[in-house]
Amino acid sequence: MSAELAEPASKIELPAGVGGGGEIPTFDVHLRVRRYNPEVSEEATWDDFHLTMYGTDRVLDALHKVKWETDGTLSFRRSCAHGVCGSDAMRINGRNRLACKTLLKDLDTSKPITVEPIKGLPVEKDLIVDMEPFFQSFREVMPFLVNKGHEPTRERLQSAEDRERFDDTTKCILCAACTSSCPVFWTDGQYFGPAAIVNAHRFIFDSRDDAGDMRLEILNDKEGVWRCRTTFNCSEACPRGIQVTQAIAEVKQAILSRKI
Amino acid sequence: MQVHKYDVVIVGAGGAGMRAAIESGQRARTAVLTKLYPTRSHTGAAQGGMCAALANVEEDNWEWHTFDTVKGGDYLVDQDAAEVMAKEAIDAVLDLEKMGLPFNRTPEGRIDQRRFGGHTRDHGKAPVRRACYAADRTGHMILQTLYQNCVKHNVEFYNEYYVLDLLTVEEDAVREDGTTYKQKRVAGVVSYDLASGELHVFQAKSVVFASGGAGKVFKTTSNAHTLTGDGMGIAFRRGIPLEDMEFFQFHPTGLAGLGILLSEAARGEGAILRNSEGERFMERYAPTIKDLAPRDIVARSMANEVREGRGCGPNKDYVLLDLTHLEPAHIDAKLPDITEFARTYLGVEPYTEPVPVFPTAHYAMGGIPTNITTEVLQDNDTVVPGLYAAGEVACVSVHGSNRLGTNSLLDINVFGKRAGIAAAEYAKTADFVELPENPLAYTTELLDIARNGTGDEKVAVIRKELQDTMDANMQVFRTAETLNQVLRDIASFEERYRRINVQDKGKRFNLDLLEAVELGFLLELAKVMTVAALYREESRGGHFREDFPDRNDEKFMKHSMAYKDDHAPADGSAESIAGIRLATKPVVFTRYEPMVRKY
User: Locate the Fumarate reductase/succinate dehydrogenase flavoprotein-like C-terminal domain: which residues (chain B) (predicted)?
Assistant: First the structure.
């Protein structure tokens, strides 16, 4: 049955208790946040906050509660608050995640929840890091469509299959959760890092693009894909579910075979 | 004082700002100032699609699209502008495809198209497949594609530079009829560097405002935390009027209690809205196109179902979006992100369970008035040379009293492009306007008041109370009584705002201070919206007055124009309420006469 043909009944019997129900439970959390403000001290410290939160609350809600009710100096980036803008990647209980996509109830609330800035990028203040090195790597892989052919008057044709080929890597929101989870990136800030490779992949495997060879050359550099040690941290960290390690492997393979 | 000089300064790096930057950057020395990073803007949260009459899957033409836009806006749309948008939509989509946007494809390899609310074949006969899309992340793809092309063209960004003031000068000028007036001219903007806390002056021949909307005046909203109406507020404070601010769109399907958007594309793909009795209640309100009626009608119908006791859940305060009759594979292919939102945030599995939804504040139809060249107007007919606006911050007006789904992504592309070209072309012929004396004075004072306050009021508390009263009294149903309540509340918030205490006294990434400044804009804009809503004693599109439930073309077929006027008396008369003066502007008609709006 295709969705096109499905004509649902005007009225249906709804199952009992549909759409959830009952009171939203509250619970107590102990938030432990890494603080750093060079205007005040060169030393980073841990600050503890005890909060009562709701079952639908996210780590971002807890941070807001602290900022808005207790300590206005707590600083972190955020914008959309539902996992599409990529502002609030941070290290939560030692794992890179988006604060707005991490529900408190899914964490172990019997222990303190630790929140730190993502690693490998210079910390500016509290949970805010300098994103410039990250975006620099992104810019270096030619993250844009290059088409040397004659420009058609209508759209370029692309089969649904060709479109599907790079679908996974179009989902990237440049949050840096992957790159800043990579042990190679921690020790060698010159490494392009997973996010830049993901964005190169997005164009290398786009049938409309003509600059795959140039990108492969860039990523064949000593700071390119060969630094990847396949630890899968990046794939685990990606809040968009991108198979990052696989994308890197596909780029490696393309360099070896020079066949896209 | 740090002064930068550019031909063109663009404020905002969302869809409209970056689309403008791609054009302007190739023609003139251009800087983009943004309070976020470029790919953080809320364009990225748009989901369903971007309409253009490509006719790739069925018969369509731009005239039908124009008609739908005009009717969707309940005839308050300027028809010349709607025509421009519908015509240029086709090239706008093709431009994006050529820039690399990965649209979904038809079996023939063309850009695929799907149905969307209010978009119809042949003037309302049936829904038409007009929305070009990339799964349910079309806005994300547009934002990424535009940023990628900004990188390609080496566009210069100043990230986390929060613009706080528009620098203008006024000159005596004479109209053709001999009357004199004060002509505004643009000199530049003042920006606050979040990282250092330093102020920077950007002197520019052209300034383009593309800073987005103001959804955070409401509590339940699909909007980002950062959408605080800064651009509208800055312009208003500098004497630019705001047009049609009473019209705010409530998107029908926000996740209940959270406001997170679930795209209209869900209904475009066949999802059904149901009440607690399992009824497909839209059959009652829009018998022809049912769940695909425009957003204002669906949102009001939902609110009405809840009000009449047919809401779902323990508090009977939401309705259900039912996708359970759709194939899971179809859902995964066409609606992957929104179904994940339902799973992540509500723990609901859309394959098998209907999703709790309720209207969420979504989009400002009003904003800074512009003509179709995106030049900003200082009154009904006088442009401010060198000042442009595009996207949600602007009011062209292509959306009238209710925007059709997908027309915002279209708006930012069509008018963003126009703004970029116009701003650069103007800069080529113009000279810099001399900066006003002491250009930082206003901004320094604004920040000092916020930073040095020693009162006992918290920004977050006032903001929450503002959002609460706006949700309770300025949402889909309004009366004189509820609107006056909002105005009384805002008066007390304004008084309390003077006694705020910002805890963070530092210079580095002082986001505490930023939120205080943002609240100032929210208060100002909420008041403008409410005053305009009180004045408009009729119901039209997104503005529904229960005490005036009918559209009144004789009296109100005109745009509202709100001016900041400190001399406006606080005597409670409708046209001038404490600091705001209301005027009107004629609607532009070309080919469509107003008709009763039925679907």
Answer: 463-599
